[in-house]
Write a structure and sequence with these properties.
The chain is 67% helix and 0% strand. By secondary structure, it is mainly α. It is globular. The relative contact order is 0.21. One of its GO terms (molecular function) is nickel cation binding.
Amino acid sequence: MTSSAPLQLAPSSFLQLMWLASPALPIGGFSYSEGLESAIQAERVTNESEAAHWLVQQLHLTQSRGDMAVIAQAAAAWHSDDRERIAALNQWVRTTRETSELRLQTEQMGRSLVDWLRNRHTGDAALQPAIAWLGTQDASYPIAFSFAAHCTGATGRDALLAYAFGWAENMVQTAIKAVPLGQSAGQRILAQLTQNIPQAVDHALALPDHGRQAFSPMLAILSAQHEHLYSRLFRS
């Protein structure tokens, strides 16, 4: 009898995904709070428990059904080099951002990641045309990330796990700075998020086109309010 073992991610792909998920990647993700700073200002998030609940809900209600679903669908398009499909997904991201702050975030992070890809793959004649094309499309962050993950050779699921963990780390650091919380509290929140990430990834992978959504009224209101906060730690 033979048993089928799960496919192992190649070490080079694993390390490249860790690189993409790192908060140290110079694309500016650490400088945004995605509405959390406004939620803290409005006293909707005041302690560790509320911060954990907020971020878990944001993972499932906005990330999983929005950007993560786009990354999952773009993965297949990159494999077949379906530029029309990728352009349509990119347009969806850009036009469904509910505030100027959220739109500027995805534009800036996408542009910075394309610049990073251009530098990372200097001299790679096979990849540079696609990177240049992304630049002409004003690629949003999910689309730029989907291509960066595609370049690693990782599966769509592994790419989403890396993306979600990178998002979680940035948001936990936001909570630590803005609530404020201690590092131990931050690690407990991150532990809760990591328990929820696999479910969120599976949901994103299963969503069809009509299942994607970018409807989160309270997050949009808080993001709009953040643009006008008198004093803030995070970028708008």
